[in-house]
């Protein structure tokens, strides 16, 4: 990462001003040391003589005290050059203080301006960082939304694939079941057909047995003529016993009809098939008889 160091604005003028102020201080310091090397001022002192001892006035007259006058030294008049130099020094010091104050104020303003600029830069930097963060968050949100869409599409595709696979499995299972049912139906139809054939055969077989038993019990009179035929309805119990005999269509010869009816009653119980499912077929029999029937 390339980092660019930016120079703070106002730092150069402040540094130049500080150098100038220090140069002025240094010059004033040298100048004041030079002016402090003048000679000391003279000191004035007044000297007084002690008073004479007191003598009695009666003994001798009081002498007039002799006062010795001490001449005062003449005051030393200050050197006008020194006064001017002192005044210049004070003015220079005041100017230096004022310059220092101005420099301090300028430095303070420069520092305040620099602080304000730094604060403004910091605010701008924070705003830029916040903007970058917001932009980054927006990009992350878009990326998350896009990823969520991709995940949803992926899940939907997986669900659709699973659904297609389930439908295919169900279809295959249904085909197998249909095939199995068809095969079972065919087998059942074959079994039913076989059973029906067996039942029909058994029914024909027992009908023949019943007719044979009735014919065996029939005693025909000698007066019969031709080949008479008669039709009877016979009601039979499950045990084979004849419950009722009814002539449906007579042969025209009552002797034959009566002989057949008696033979039906004598043949009771009639032979019944062992399969109970055929009993309904033998409950009401419709039997035809003829003389020449074998």
UniProtKB/TrEMBL annotation:
The entry's localization annotation reads: Membrane
* Name of one Pfam family that matches: TonB_2
Can you tell me which residues the record assigns to a coiled coil? 82-169
Supply one GO molecular-function term: toxin transmembrane transporter activity
The record describes its membrane topology as: Single-pass membrane protein
Q: Which UniProt keywords apply?
A: Coiled coil, Membrane, Transmembrane, Transmembrane helix
Mention any one GO cellular component term assigned to this protein in its UniProt record. Answer: membrane
Q: Which SUPFAM superfamilies match?
A: TolA/TonB C-terminal domain
For biological process, the GO terms are: bacteriocin transport
Keyword 4Fe-4S among record annotations: no
Task: For the region Disordered, give the residue spans.
Answer: 55-79
Which parts of the chain span the membrane according to its record? Answer: 12-33
Name this polypeptide is given: TolA protein
Organism, per UniProt?
A: Sulfuriferula nivalis
Task: Specify the taxonomic lineage.
Answer: Bacteria, Pseudomonadati, Pseudomonadota, Betaproteobacteria, Nitrosomonadales
């Amino acid at each position: 990462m390339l980092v660019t160091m930016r120079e703070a604005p106002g730092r150069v003028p402040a540094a130049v001003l500080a150098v100038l102020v220090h140069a002025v201080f240094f010059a004033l310091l040298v100048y004041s040391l030079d002016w402090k090397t003048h000679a000391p001022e003279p000191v004035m002192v007044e000297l007084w003589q002690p008073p004479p001892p007191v003598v009695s006035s009666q003994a001798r007259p009081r002498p007039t005290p002799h006062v010795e006058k001490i001449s005062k030294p003449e005051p030393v008049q200050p050197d006008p050059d020194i006064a001017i130099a002192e005044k210049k020094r004070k003015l220079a010091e005041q100017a230096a203080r004022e310059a220092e104050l101005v420099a301090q104020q300028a430095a303070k303003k420069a520092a305040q301006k620099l602080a304000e600029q730094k604060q403004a830069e910091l605010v701008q930097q924070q705003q830029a960082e916040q903007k970058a963060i917001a932009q980054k968050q927006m990009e992350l949100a878009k990326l998350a939304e896009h990823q969520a869409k991709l995940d949803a599409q992926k899940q939907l595709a997986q669900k659709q694939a699973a659904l297609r696979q389930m439908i295919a499995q169900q279809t295959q299972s249904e085909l197998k079941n249909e095939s199995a049912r068809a095969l079972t139906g065919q087998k059942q139809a074959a079994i039913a057909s076989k059973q029906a054939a067996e039942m029909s055969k058994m029914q024909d077989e027992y009908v023949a047995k019943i007719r044979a038993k009735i014919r065996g019990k029939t005693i025909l009179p000698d007066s019969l003529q031709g080949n008479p035929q008669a039709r009877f309805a016979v009601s039979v119990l499950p045990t084979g016993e004849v419950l009722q005999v009814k002539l449906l269509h007579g042969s025209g010869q009552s002797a034959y009809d009566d002989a057949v009816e008696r033979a039906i009653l004598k043949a009771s119980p009639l032979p019944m098939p062992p399969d109970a499912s055929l009993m309904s077929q033998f409950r009401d029999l419709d039997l035809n008889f003829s003389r020449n029937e074998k």
